[in-house]
Known about the structure:
The complex is a heterodimer. By secondary structure, chain A is an all-alpha fold. Chain A has one domain (3-211): Orthogonal Bundle (MetI-like fold), CATH 1.10.3720.10. Helices cover 85% and strands 0% of the residues of chain A. In chain A, helix 1 (3-40) runs antiparallel to helix 2, helix 1 runs antiparallel to helix 6 and helix 4 crosses helix 6 (123-153). Chain A has helices spanning 3-40, 43-58, 61-74, 81-107, 110-118, 123-153, 165-176, 179-211. Chain B contains nine helices and ten strands. The interface between A and B is medium-sized, with 22 and 28 residues.
Amino acid sequence: MTQDAFLFLLNGLLWTVGLSAIGFAGGTPAGLAIALARTTAPGPLNRAAAGYIAVFQGTPLLMQLFVVYYGLALIGLKLDAWVAVAIGFTLHASAYLGEIWRGGIEAVPRGQTEAATALGIRYVSRMRDVVLPQALKISLPATIGFLVQLIKGTSLAAIVGFTELARAASIISNQTFKPLLVYAIVGVLYFALCWPLSIWGARMERKLAAASR
Amino acid sequence: MESHADTASQPMIVMEAVEKSYGAFKALTNINLTVRQGERIVLCGPSGSGKSTLIRCINHLERYESGKIIVDGIHLGDDMRTVDAVRREVGMVFQSFNLFPHMTVLQNCILAPMRVRGIVRAEAEGIARALLDRVKILDQADKYPAQLSGGQQQRVAIARALCMQPRVMLFDEPTSALDPEMVKEVLDTMIGLAEDGMTMICVTHEMGFARQVADRVIFMARGEIVEQAPPEEFFRNPKNERTRAFLGEILHH
């Protein structure tokens, strides 16, 4: 395999990192909003959030990206591929993160909220200072797990024209007729991206556990 | 309406015809109770009799459905303004301590004064250290709750509530989750608080505590106040049959 081919793969890796970052940057605030709506919002908003989660967990990411990019274009809303992918990943990630964090928030003992409430602490501080730090710790393994899924899921952005790592691999493989070598390299690159994240997650978990022991 | 003047003659807590139900279950029926400033009240009764519900209505952890509650001159309604105003004046201690596990003892104590009263950190820490000293646990200020014994945790919880400088303290079975050898240190702390003139309502089965510090013992059953009397009279000569049955249960063990 030539140096050019390898650089082409590395360029694909860069796109994969970028798409993952977009998904997480968009999914985090939206997911937090969904989780808060699911745990503390009144009826209609709560049900809307539940419906949102059901829709985006219940349909394939591939289809979601397809609908955002091509579907919206059909009704006259032509989005830039970047914007379409950012929207698609944000929707997808926020539904999953929202559900993961809802579980974390609900696992924090009710006495914590009651104690904060009895001290006169209002909603925003109650969540930010008391509930969410504990919920985050509980949800950390699942959050890291989802992040890793998200990194691998970015390969689906190839459908709207992104030459990220997986797409780059298929192009190079077709040119060089050395699929085994190419996909071995790509496998190592994906692993090099995801493994440190898992390590970091495990370390954070230990650190947070130590803080309350 | 929020005047704090003339507090000597004004009752600290007034409950008038307060009612509360959970679905078909009537948790509180026609509760009428007036607590003077500095008065120490012990609430007892069998489990499910509404004792906890009663005190949790006073700081609106539970919403009451009808009747009237006035705390320190503030009529407790459903609007956040009066609820917040009342919560600033009322401290609460729970059976299960409910310290924030991800914060040190000191951080537990300064959170509410900083967030609710808007006090700066240095001042909040000063107040917190003084109160931790008062409950004899200042040397543990930088530890996390899980590093402390149950009795120590509950004393921290008392200090944390006091950091808001409340005018009333509510205790919801503060010693029920403790190992027997730790009950005394918590009760001693509560006795100290009572001697300093704090207005207190304590849900507890510690009848020794009731004898020693209560001005009035109230017995509840099935959501109603059945009997109330000064401790001497309450224990020597309970009038209601349900009170006698209850005292027979808890005193002869």
